[in-house]
Amino acid sequence: MESKPDRRLIIVAVLAFIGVILLVATVVLTCTALFTWLEASGGSPRLNVWEIRGELPPENASIIHLTEKDFEQHPALDSAIRGDNRDPGNWYQGDTPYGVLDKRTIGSAPVTYVERGVLIESFGPDVEARNQPYLEYEGAYYYFLTLIP
Hints:
With 149 residues, the protein is an alpha+beta fold. It contains 4 helices and 6 strands, in the order H-E-E-H-H-E-E-H-E-E. The termini are far apart.
């Protein structure tokens, strides 16, 4: 007679185990779907470009001289610096990667997450050296940030 309660206990334990597995899978899938939806509904990242002036460049600054090839490979950068999304603002004193300098917003353009990654790889900061390079084009110096909504 003892085998019947033991058998019921085993069946209940197996069903409870399956229930826990299904619950965990449901929670994981729900969280994944929610975070994917939130990321997709927030819009695309934006490339913001600032021009800086003053005593440039500082001694420890990295400078990347932009070429036509760079603009061909990075259309969002081209659009923000010299294209349709160029919209120079007023000069003001503000923080830059090399301290407080005169700067102004030059332009802003939408980018995809892939473009954002390529821009950061190509022209982004050297995290280990804590060094944000300047971009130089026709004698003007720029730096950029990509913002994720």
